[in-house]
Design goal:
By secondary structure, the protein is of the alpha+beta class. It has two domains: about 210 residues, no CATH class; about 190 residues, no CATH class. Helices cover about 55% and strands about 20% of the residues. The chain has 17 helices and 13 strands. A hairpin with a 5-residue loop joins strand 5 and strand 6. Helix 1 packs across helix 13 and helix 11 packs antiparallel against helix 13. The longest helix has about 40 residues.
Length: about 400
């Protein structure tokens, strides 16, 4: 395609500024919608992924076989302290923590309530994305933290002594008195609803689980390291008899929500293409029929039909690319603003909305949109290709014109 053909195509594009502007607006709004939707969905997917791989699940979990199905107290990992130490020493492991979990009854006064003892390494779980993320308190022996909803239901207060009764792993009665150190609101709904958090050592003593744990949660430095660390853990001595699970295997129903980001993007891309086809076909068809006389003169002067076809295709490519550029500018402006402020969906529904949970996880309702460099390119390539296809009809009409008939029109 010669430079003169390109210049003529660019000039022709602006002969009817209003029509061109409407076509650009249609394509631009579609591209903006694509980037905005992709940014919001990807930001929400990131939040869910962080919630899953942070306090709730971690990136990798280690259990005794059948523990996840049966939740039996005696299905505990032996010598868990040493295994945690070895795992923490692996390259690219951010942290590893053992947990003891057991159903119990608690009695702040005369009435008893169902609860779950969560024996944890408080220092480790208080780090970002831990079960107690945001906690700054240490937990002395003989003290517990109580989930705020459980405390509200039972009437437990800070400084109060509560009785905890349950069954130990060896079948004996597990019971002791503990002092409520604090009432906490954590990132996991199960902790808030039923959680009684105590130090790992206290839980192991209460439930007759010396140096044992029901699960070990591993967090990695970067998501791309999960597969490699998973294989490295499986090669550790004694790990062959344990069940070692990837986070995507542990919560497949929540993983589906994350994977829906791509499907939403393809749906919006379809709308962008519809807008592009409608705008470009209308613009070029009107432009072609308005210039019949001009095309006839060009053909009569020796201009080849192929050059006229290329000119119309160039107009279509310009129209599509400009529309995408406008939409991309609007989309990045929207993402830039919302990345700084965030979008807090909890404010739309008040306090009750902030308590929405699924599968024991409190769903994140603050979105920080994020786009990938590939996102605008997806719209650009798709729109330009569709633009060229949309221009095929008007280009074919112009290329088949009879010069004499065209000049008489």
């Amino acid at each position: 395609m010669t430079a003169s053909t390109v210049r003529i195509a660019w000039r022709n594009l602006w002969r009817n500024r209003r029509r061109t502007a409407l076509a650009l607006l249609a394509i631009g709004v579609g591209q903006w919608a694509l980037l905005a939707t992709q940014g919001l969905m990807r930001g929400y997917g990131d939040n869910i992924q962080n919630a899953i791989t942070g306090p709730m699940i971690g990136h990798i979990q280690i259990h005794r076989p059948a523990y996840r199905e049966e939740r039996a107290l005696d299905l505990a990992i032996d010598d868990s302290t040493e295994l945690v130490r070895i795992v923490r020493a692996l390259p690219n492991v951010a942290d590893a923590a053992a947990r003891v979990l057991a159903p119990v009854l608690i009695a702040p006064e005369s009435d008893a309530f169902i609860a779950v003892v969560m024996g944890v390494d408080v220092a480790s779980e208080s780090k970002p994305f831990g079960l107690l993320s945001g906690n700054t308190d240490s937990l002395p022996p003989g003290h517990v933290m109580v989930g705020y909803r459980l405390a509200r239901k039972t009437g437990a207060t800070v400084g109060q002594e509560i009785a905890i009764v349950g069954q130990a792993a060896d079948g004996s009665l597990a019971n002791d008195l503990f002092t409520v150190h604090s009432i906490i609101k954590g990132p996991v709904d199960q902790l808030n609803q039923m959680g009684v958090v105590m130090g790992l050592g206290d839980a192991q003593m209460l439930l007759a689980l010396p140096e044992q744990a029901h699960e070990i949660v591993i967090r990695v430095e970067q998501l791309g390291h999960v597969a490699g660390i998973l294989e490295a853990v499986k090669e550790l001595e004694g790990a062959q008899s344990l069940e070692i699970s990837h986070w995507r295997e542990l919560v497949p129903e929540l993983v589906m929500i994350i994977d829906m980001v791509d499907y939403a993007g393809y749906f919006i891309l379809g709308l962008v293409l519809v807008a592009a086809v409608a705008g470009i076909v209308n613009t070029l068809m009107m432009s072609t029929y308005e210039r019949m006389h001009e095309f006839g003169m060009l053909l009569a002067l020796g201009c080849r039909p192929g050059r006229i076809v290329r000119m119309i295709l160039a107009e279509a490519a310009f129209l599509g690319a400009l529309g995408v550029a406008v939409g991309t500018s609007l989309g990045y402006a929207f993402i830039a603003v919302t990345m700084r402020t965030g979008i807090n969906m909890a404010s739309w529904g008040g306090e009750e909305a902030s308590e929405i949970a699924y599968g024991g996880m409190r769903l994140p309702l603050e979105i920080i949109p994020r786009v990938e460099p590939f996102d605008p390119m997806l719209g650009l390539v798709a729109v330009v290709l569709v633009s060229l296809l949309s221009a095929a009809w008007p280009a074919l009409v112009a290329g088949r014109l009879d010069p004499m008939e065209a000049m008489r029109s």
